[in-house]
């Protein structure tokens, strides 16, 4: 049984919880590759996808995972809701729960919003990304994708490149990879590396070539312009020259390297199109694996007994 009632962050999971999720995802990956991709596992459950911030992959992936598990699904987008008329988060959620909803998958721009909700409503909460804090299912699917590609995560050297300061993907990945026994390095402009990073036992490198020479896996992150209130580097062109991954750089390394990206990609900024579709890239595998991992999370959280 998983050790948490809600999935609020990787921080709260044990190594055993993560292993259980990844192991359970193997079963669901088999299911979604069968001609009949659906199982009746969550037939009696109603799940709401509550998105207060834009999403393509995470929202569709959760919705597909819920439908593959036969749950009833309702979707809520803040932009078309009564939030614009002044309704609070708690009132919105309590009104939805009054319709007998069992589980809430939530994305919110404020760090801690899913934690706040989990203490005030009687439903299981899954964090689908809270501000620059955590994105636990992204980290789980990233770890799962590394495990499928390289056999295991333990002992692997994983590089995270880009806007570490504003990235919930980076923080959740650091927690998850370290719990699974990987070494983690971050690379980017010094202004986009948070000051607390070394307390997380993470290596820091500002030279992309040196960082790429060190790692087995490079996870290329997008610059989160929507979370930047000031300029952190002179121009996107300069950022791309120093921290973008292109074919010339990749080929000059002359090594096996697994390239990942959580999406959405800004082609030509952090990664060129040819690298994104190259044999090194597992970007679309991450998306496929995401459905299986989210099925595993939904299944394990739904079936956890009350304390
Ligand atoms: N990776 C990720 O969270 O993508 P979306 O913002 O499209 O959900």
Mean pLDDT: 94
| Number of beta strands | 9
Beginning-to-end CA distance, first to last residue:
12 Å
Biggest sheet layout: 5 strands, parallel
Q: What ligand species are in this complex?
A: phosphoric acid mono(formamide)ester
Overall geometric form:
globular
CATH class of the largest domain: Alpha Beta
Under the CATH scheme, the architecture of the largest domain is 3-Layer(aba) Sandwich
Task: Tell me the helix content.
Answer: 25-40%
* CATH topology group of the largest domain: Rossmann fold
Uncertain runs: none
Strand content: 5-15%
Please describe the structure with a list of short key phrases separated by commas or semicolons.
Rossmann fold; 307 residues; alpha/beta; 38% helix; four-stranded parallel sheet; five-stranded parallel sheet; single chain
3D structure, described in words:
With 307 residues, the protein is α/β, with parallel strands linked by helices. It has two domains: 10-134 and 288-302, 3-Layer(aba) Sandwich (Rossmann fold); 136-286, 3-Layer(aba) Sandwich (Rossmann fold). It has eleven helices and nine strands. The strands form two sheets. It has a five-stranded parallel β-sheet. A four-stranded parallel β-sheet has the order 2-1-3-4. Strand 3, helix 4 and strand 4 (124-130) form a beta-alpha-beta unit. The protein is globular. The relative contact order is 0.17. Bound molecules: phosphoric acid mono(formamide)ester. Residues 55-58, 129, 135, 138, 262-264 line the site of phosphoric acid mono(formamide)ester.
């Amino acid at each position: 049984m998983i050790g948490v009632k809600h999935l609020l962050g990787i921080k709260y999971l044990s190594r055993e919880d993560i292993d259980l999720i990844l192991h359970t995802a193997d079963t669901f990956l088999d299911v979604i590759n069968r001609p009949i991709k659906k199982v009746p596992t969550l037939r009696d459950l109603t799940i709401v996808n509550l998105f207060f911030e834009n999403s393509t992959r995470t929202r569709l992936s959760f919705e597909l995972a819920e439908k593959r598990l036969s749950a009833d699904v309702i979707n809520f987008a803040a932009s078309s809701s009564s939030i614009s008329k002044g309704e609070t988060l708690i009132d919105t959620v309590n009104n939805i729960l009054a319709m007998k909803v069992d589980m809430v998958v939530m994305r919110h721009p404020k760090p801690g919003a899913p934690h706040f909700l989990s203490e005030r409503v009687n439903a299981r909460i899954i964090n689908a990304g809270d501000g620059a804090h955590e994105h636990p299912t992204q980290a789980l699917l990233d770890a799962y994708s590394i495990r499928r590609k390289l056999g295991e995560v333990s002992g692997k050297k994983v590089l995270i490149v880009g806007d570490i300061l504003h990235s919930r993907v980076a923080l959740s990945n650091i927690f998850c990879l370290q719990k699974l026994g990987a070494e983690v390095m971050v690379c980017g402009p010094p202004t986009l590396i948070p000051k607390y990073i070394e307390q997380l036992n993470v290596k820091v490198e500002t030279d992309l070539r040196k960082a790429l020479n060190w790692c087995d896996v490079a996870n290329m992150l997008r610059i989160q312009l929507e979370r930047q209130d000031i300029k952190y580097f002179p121009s996107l062109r300069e950022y791309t020259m120093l921290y973008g991954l292109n074919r010339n750089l990749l080929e000059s390394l002359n090594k096996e390297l697994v390239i990942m990206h959580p999406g959405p990609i800004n082609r030509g900024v952090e990664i060129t199109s040819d690298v994104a579709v190259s044999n090194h890239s597992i970007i679309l595998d991450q998306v496929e694996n995401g459905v299986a991992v989210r099925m595993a999370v939904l299944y394990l959280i739904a079936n956890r007994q009350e304390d």
